[in-house]
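Write out this protein's structure.
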Amino acid sequence: MSANRRSNPDDAPFELKPSPGKGWGAFATKRIERGSLILKEKALFVIQKSSVDITGLDVFRAVMELSPTELVQSLLIQNNESEEPKGLLETLSENYFTSALKSIGFYTLGSRFNHSCIPNARVPSDPRPFIELLATKKIEAGEEIYFCYFPDLKAQTRHERHESLGFVCSCKALDLDGQRQSSQSTLIVDPKLKAAAETGNIPLMSRMVLHLLMVVFLEEEGLLDDWAVKVVEQGAVTPVFWCQSEYNYEIADLALAQDTWLEKLQVAFQIYGRTDPADQMIARMIQQASQKYAAGQAMPPWT
């Protein structure tokens, strides 16, 4: 093993090597089929605190408990090929995974995979003592393997994504806008709807239609993987159970009974913009969820 390279497991379908402008990266050594397991790795160490509460002393104590071999592995992560070596606390802050509620794990292989807002792999979000990386689409030999560091980025603008990531992402998902969007942005088709989204006041039926529209767009662009379907589908299905208008329920139920996503959307457009007695209750729930999100908790997928 070289002075700055972490060796791969013998059966790994990828290799680690420099990625232009990104330090190290992971590249497929053979075709990886959609749904395949790319990596399963146990944490080098876990710190039982949330990321914002961790101090340099916490990191030092964790590192001092490592074996000599593990210590060498942790130090290798400080070398990112294109940058000067960083301190352990800074290195940890850029390479951790949330492994459970209020705890983070440090993974020597997983931390070498780069970010993309349009990834070809994902890390399941459920708490585990290890991380798994799964292919969300077919990955050809030689292709770099990416996952999205923060799933919530899917609904953020370029400015917001860069603030969350702490670095500049240049992937094509951000090509449309170089500025922070607002309800006055010329790129927002419906500024009233944008303003309503900022306060959680989108009508329940419109929320369902917008989620279906998102699925259709993802499918059209070839970005609709099993994980995206699972998440976005909840946003289309949940409103049916919440709506209190008999007419809204009948049309929404009919829409979901259609065979294709486009057909579901076409039927659902009949209730786009219609109010429902449940709208105010849902708006309050969204506002409460937003407050929890600001405190570090995940937003419900149906929002």
